[in-house]
C-alpha cells in the first residue's frame, strides 16, 4: 500500500480516481503546523530556532495519515509544486516523525503541474527527495515575516494606538498606495487646449487632423495654455490654405502576449471580469483541482501560482493543434513561440497557466461550470491559445498637412491604422487600464499634394489629471516590477490591507484610509530603511538565492536581525510627542486644511492661541487643540474627496430632502463621517443623523443613498407569529434585521433596503435557535467612545432582554422603542448616571436570605483561611510566601 498526501480533499478525490487500488490518497487540508501567535516562536538567540504547533483540526489529520502510514510500504508527498507545497510536505513528514509513525517506509516527493491522469502517473514514475533549499527559503520567509510582525507591531501599538499591524511585504505595498495618494494631493492641474481641423478629402470623405506645429515650432501637449491663444489660432486656420505634404504608410506586426502568470491573470481578471485577486485565485484553485465532467473528475488548468510564461511542449502542441483545427493554417506560425519572463527575480518557474487540454472549448464546459468559473476558464483558454497564434498585420498611416496664410504657417497631422490580417486578435485582445482603443481610426485614401477642404475648426479645453489611484491589478503589477512579494502572496497582501482597515475600495480603486496613512508615515519616519522599495526587493533576491542553494537561510536572518532589532530597541526611548510632531510634518498637507484667507492651517478655529495637532485616543487618531482641556475643539482627520483634496471643516451639502424640505449634509465627527437632516434648533428636537457604513466614502455618497440611510431603521413587516414589527438597520458590526431585541446579521448594506419578510423571519429564527444552544457574549451594536468624565469605553450592546448602554460594570437598559443607532453620548451618560444612582433592588425575603447565607459563607471561609495561615506561619516558610503574595 502506498499512502499519498495532498493538500485538499478536492485534489485527493481527483487523484484517487487516477491511481489504482494500491494507493490511498489523503488530504492534509493545507499546512498542518504553524508558528504559535506569541513571543518566542522564533528565537534569534538560538540561531533562529522555531517552535511549531499543531492545532486540534490538524492533529486529527496527522493522526489519520499516521494510522495509514504505519501499515504502508511508502509515503508519497504530492503537494503543490511551489515553495509552499514543498513546505507542507516537509511539515507533514516532520509531524509524522515526531509521532514515530515513520520507520522503514520509503519516502518520496512527487510534483505535477496539472491534475490530469497523464501528469499524475508521470509524476509517480519520477519521484525525488524533498527540496531542502526550497524548504530553507520557506523557513527564512516565515521567520522574517514573524519577526517583523511580532517585533514591529507592538511598537505601533505603543506609539500609534489604533494601528493594527505591520508586515514585511504588507507595509511596503501600503506605502505604494499612500505615496500615490500623496502624489495626487500634491498635483496641480494645468489648463491646456487642443485644436482639431474637420476636413474632407478630394473625394469628399471626412477625416480629422490635429494641430502639431505653429510658425516653425513643434507644439507639445501643454503648448496652448489659454482659450485666447486657441481662439487666435482658430481664426488663422479658418482662413488658411491646406495641402498634403506627405503620406506615409508603415506596415507593422503586433505580437500576442504570453500565457498567464499569477500576476497577469489577476490583473486581466480584474480589468475584464471585475474579480478581486483573492476571488480570482479561489476560482482558479477550483479549476486546477478538478471539475466533474460526466463522472470523470479532471483538472482543467495547470498550476495557478507561477511567474513562468513558458508552456510545456505538451501544452504548446495541444494549443497548436487547436489553432490549426479551429482557425486554419493561416493563423498558425511556422515555428513555436517561446517567451521569457520579464518579472524581476522570477523564481517559481514551473509553467505558465494554461488549459490542460486545449480541445476543451469554453463553450462546451459552460454546462458544468458556474458563471465565474466559466468566465475565468475562457480567459485562460483564449490567452493561452492566442499566445501561439500568428501575429496581427497592421498598416499605420500618417498624413502631414501644411496650413498657411499671408503671415502664419502651421502643421497638422492625421493618423489611422488598418488591420490587414487580424491574426491572434481574432481570438484575444489584452485589456488595458486606460481603456485605449487598440484599433484606432481608419483614414480614407489621401494623396500627397492633395488640397483637402476644411469644414470646421474646433478648439477644446483640457486639464491635466493626476496619476490614477492603484487598482488591485495595477498595484500587483507595480509590486512585480519592483520585485516585491511573490505570486503566492499577492492576493493575501491585498486582503490584509483591506481587513486591517488601511485601505478601502472605491470604484475598484485603492484609497488609503487615515489609519493606513498614519502607519506609513510612522514607518517612513522611524523605520525608513525597512519600507524602502529597493531594500525589500534586495531581501527578496537573497531569499531567492536561498531557494537556489546559494545562501544559508540563517545567514540572511542574522544580517537582517542584527540591524533591525537594534533599531527597534532605539525606538523604546521614543516619546509619543516626537511621533506626533513627525506625523504632523509629513501629513500636514493632508490633515490641516488651509483656510480660504490663506491663514495658518494649524490655527485652532475655536480659541485664539491654540495650535492644532494630531492626538491619539483609544479609537485612533484625531485632530485636537493644544489648549486642551481649556479648549475642547476636536475633529476627525481630513477626508479625501473625489479629487484627492481635503474637505473643509464645514458640512458638505448633498441636496434637499423632498419630503421634509430640509437640507441633507455630510459632516465629519469625532468618530467618522455622518449624515444629518436639517440643523439643530435651540431647545428643539435634535436633527436626524446616520453614520456612513464601512466602505462608503464621504466624498462619493450622493443624495439618494443619503436619504436611504437617514430613513433607517426600515420596517420590513410584521412577524407572522407575534405581529410585532421586524426592522432592518445598520449597526457597528454591519447591517442587521431585528425583532423584539433579537438581531441577525445581513450579508451587505444593500440588503438592508431590499430584504423581504420571509428572509428576515428565517434569519431571526436561526439566530434564536443558535442562541438557545448557549449564551454568547453580548454583541456590541454601537461604540460611542470615551466617557467624557469618568473615562473608559461607552457602548450600546445587544442583551438578552434588548439593547442596553454599557460602561464598565454599569449597564443601563434603553427605553422601549429606542433605536440603538440613534443614541448619543449625552443620552447614554444620562442613562448610566440614572442607573448608577438608583437604589439596589431587593427581591423580598428570598433575596435577603440569599444575601445572609452568602455573607455567612464568606465569613466562615475568611475565618478558615485566617486559621490556616496562622497555623502554617509557625514554620516561617508559608508565612513568608503569604507576605510576598499580599505585596
Features:
887 residues; alpha+beta; Rossmann fold; Topoisomerase I, domain 3; Topoisomerase I, domain 4; 7-stranded antiparallel β-sheet; 4-stranded parallel β-sheet; 32 strands; disordered C terminus
Tell me what you see in this structure.
By secondary structure, this protein is of the alpha+beta class. Among the domains are: 2-130, Rossmann fold (3-Layer(aba) Sandwich); 191-255 and 393-463, Topoisomerase I, domain 3 (Distorted Sandwich); 262-390, Topoisomerase I, domain 4; 660-837, no CATH class; 844-886. The chain is 37% helix and 22% strand. It contains 25 helices and 32 strands. The strands form 9 sheets. Strands 7, 8, 9, 10, 13, 14 and 15 form a 7-stranded antiparallel beta sheet that branches. The longest helix is centred in the last third of the chain and has 29 residues, at 844-872. The protein is globular. Mean pLDDT is 83; it is low at 434-439, 639-649 and 840-887.
Amino acid at each position: 500500500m502506498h499512502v499519498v498526501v495532498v493538500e485538499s480533499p478536492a485534489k485527493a478525490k481527483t487523484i484517487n480516481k487516477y491511481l489504482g487500488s494500491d494507493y490511498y490518497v489523503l488530504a492534509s487540508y493545507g499546512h498542518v503546523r504553524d508558528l504559535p501567535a506569541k513571543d518566542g516562536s522564533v528565537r534569534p538567540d538560538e540561531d533562529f530556532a522555531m517552535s511549531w504547533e499543531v492545532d486540534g483540526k490538524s492533529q486529527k489529520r496527522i493522526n489519520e495519515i499516521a494510522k495509514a502510514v504505519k501499515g504502508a510500504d511508502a509515503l508519497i508527498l504530492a503537494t503543490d509544486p511551489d515553495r509552499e507545497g514543498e513546505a507542507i510536505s516537509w511539515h507533514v513528514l516532520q509531524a509524522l516523525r515526531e509521532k514515530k509513525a515513520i520507520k522503514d517506509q520509503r519516502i518520496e516527493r512527487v510534483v505535477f503541474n496539472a491534475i490530469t491522469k497523464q501528469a499524475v502517473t508521470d509524476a509517480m514514475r519520477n519521484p525525488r527527495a524533498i527540496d531542502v533549499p526550497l524548504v530553507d527559503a520557506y523557513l527564512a520567509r516565515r521567520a522574517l515575516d514573524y519577526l517583523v510582525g511580532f517585533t514591529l507591531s507592538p511598537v505601533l501599538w505603543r506609539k500609534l494606538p489604533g494601528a493594527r499591524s505591520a508586515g514585511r511585504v504588507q507595509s511596503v505595498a501600503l506605502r505604494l498606495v499612500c505615496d500615490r495618494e500623496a502624489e495626487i494631493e500634491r498635483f496641480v492641474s494645468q489648463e491646456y487646449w487642443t485644436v482639431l481641423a474637420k476636413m474632407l478629402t478630394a473625394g469628399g470623405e471626412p477625416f480629422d487632423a490635429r494641430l502639431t506645429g505653429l510658425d516653425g515650432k513643434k507644439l507639445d501637449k501643454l503648448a496652448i495654455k489659454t482659450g485666447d491663444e486657441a481662439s487666435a489660432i482658430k481664426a488663422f486656420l479658418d482662413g488658411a490654405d491646406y495641402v498634403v505634404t506627405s503620406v506615409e504608410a508603415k506596415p507593422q506586426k503586433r505580437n500576442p502576449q504570453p500565457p498567464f502568470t499569477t500576476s497577469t491573470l489577476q490583473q486581466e481578471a480584474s480589468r475584464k471580469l471585475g474579480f478581486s485577486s483573492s476571488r480570482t485565485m479561489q476560482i482558479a484553485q477550483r479549476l486546477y483541482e478538478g471539475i466533474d465532467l460526466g463522472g470523470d473528475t479532471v483538472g482543467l488548468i495547470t498550476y495557478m501560482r507561477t511567474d513562468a510564461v513558458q508552456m510545456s511542449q505538451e501544452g504548446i502542441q495541444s494549443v497548436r493543434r487547436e489553432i490549426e483545427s479551429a482557425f486554419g493554417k493561416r493563423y498558425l506560425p511556422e515555428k513555436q513561440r517561446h517567451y521569457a519572463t520579464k518579472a524581476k527575480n522570477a523564481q517559481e518557474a514551473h509553467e505558465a497557466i494554461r488549459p490542460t487540454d486545449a480541445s476543451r472549448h469554453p463553450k462546451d464546459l459552460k454546462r458544468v461550470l458556474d458563471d465565474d468559473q466559466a468566465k475565468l476558464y475562457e480567459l485562460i483558454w483564449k490567452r493561452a491559445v492566442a499566445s501561439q497564434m500568428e501575429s496581427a498585420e497592421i498598416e499605420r498611416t500618417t498624413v502631414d498637412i501644411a496650413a498657411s496664410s499671408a503671415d502664419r504657417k502651421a502643421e497638422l497631422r492625421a493618423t489611422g491604422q488598418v488591420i490587414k490580417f487580424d491574426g491572434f486578435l481574432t481570438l484575444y485582445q489584452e485589456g488595458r487600464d486606460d481603456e485605449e482603443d487598440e484599433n484606432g481610426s481608419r483614414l480614407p485614401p489621401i494623396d500627397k499634394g492633395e488640397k483637402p477642404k476644411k469644414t470646421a475648426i474646433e478648439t477644446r479645453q483640457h486639464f491635466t489629471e493626476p496619476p490614477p489611484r492603484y487598482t488591485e491589478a495595477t498595484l500587483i503589477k507595480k509590486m512585480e516590477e519592483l520585485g516585491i512579494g511573490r505570486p503566492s502572496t499577492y492576493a493575501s497582501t491585498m486582503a490584509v490591507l483591506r481587513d486591517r482597515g488601511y485601505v478601502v475600495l472605491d470604484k475598484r480603486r485603492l484609497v488609503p484610509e487615515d489609519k493606513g496613512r498614519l502607519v506609513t508615515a510612522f514607518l517612513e519616519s522611524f523605520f525608513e530603511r525597512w519600507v524602502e522599495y529597493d531594500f525589500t526587493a534586495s531581501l527578496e533576491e537573497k531569499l531567492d538565492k536561498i531557494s537556489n542553494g546559494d545562501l544559508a537561510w540563517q545567514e540572511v536572518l542574522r544580517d537582517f536581525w542584527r540591524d533591525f532589532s537594534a533599531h527597534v530597541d532605539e525606538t523604546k526611548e521614543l516619546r509619543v510627542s516626537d511621533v506626533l510632531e513627525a506625523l504632523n510634518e509629513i501629513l500636514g498637507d493632508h490633515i490641516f486644511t488651509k483656510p480660504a484667507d490663506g491663514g495658518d492651517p494649524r490655527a485652532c478655529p475655536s480659541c485664539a492661541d491654540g495650535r492644532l495637532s494630531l492626538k491619539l485616543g483609544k479609537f485612533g487618531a484625531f485632530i485636537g487643540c493644544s489648549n486642551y482641556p481649556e479648549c475642547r475643539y476636536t475633529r476627525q482627520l481630513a477626508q479625501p474627496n473625489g479629487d484627492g483634496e481635503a474637505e473643509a471643516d464645514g458640512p458638505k451639502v448633498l441636496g434637499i430632502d423632498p419630503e421634509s424640505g430640509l437640507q441633507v449634509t455630510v459632516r465629519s465627527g469625532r468618530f467618522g463621517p455622518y449624515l444629518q437632516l436639517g440643523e439643530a434648533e435651540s431647545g428643539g428636537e435634535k436633527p436626524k443623523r446616520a453614520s456612513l457604513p464601512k466602505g462608503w466614502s464621504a466624498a462619493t455618497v450622493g443624495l439618494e443613498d443619503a436619504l436611504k440611510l437617514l430613513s433607517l431603521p426600515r420596517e420590513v413587516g410584521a412577524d407572522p407569529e407575534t405581529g410585532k414589527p421586524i426592522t432592518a438597520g445598520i449597526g457597528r458590526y454591519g447591517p442587521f434585521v431585528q425583532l423584539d431585541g433579537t438581531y441577525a446579521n445581513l450579508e451587505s448594506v444593500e440588503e438592508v433596503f431590499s430584504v423581504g419578510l420571509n428572509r428576515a423571519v428565517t434569519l431571526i429564527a436561526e439566530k434564536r435557535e443558535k442562541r438557545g444552544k448557549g449564551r454568547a457574549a453580548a454583541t456590541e451594536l454601537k461604540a460611542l467612545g470615551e466617557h467624557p468624565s469618568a473615562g473608559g469605553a461607552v457602548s450600546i450592546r445587544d442583551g438578552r432582554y434588548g439593547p442596553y448602554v454599557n460602561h464598565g460594570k454599569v449597564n443601563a437598559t434603553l427605553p422601549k422603542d429606542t433605536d440603538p443607532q440613534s443614541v448619543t453620548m449625552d443620552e447614554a451618560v444620562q442613562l448610566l448616571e440614572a442607573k448608577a444612582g438608583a437604589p439596589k433592588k431587593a427581591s423580598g425575603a428570598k433575596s435577603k436570605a440569599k444575601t445572609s447565607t452568602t455573607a455567612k459563607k464568606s465569613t466562615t471561609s475568611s475565618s478558615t483561611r485566617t486559621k490556616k495561615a496562622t497555623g502554617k506561619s509557625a514554620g516561617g516558610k508559608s508565612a513568608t510566601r503569604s507576605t510576598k503574595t499580599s505585596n
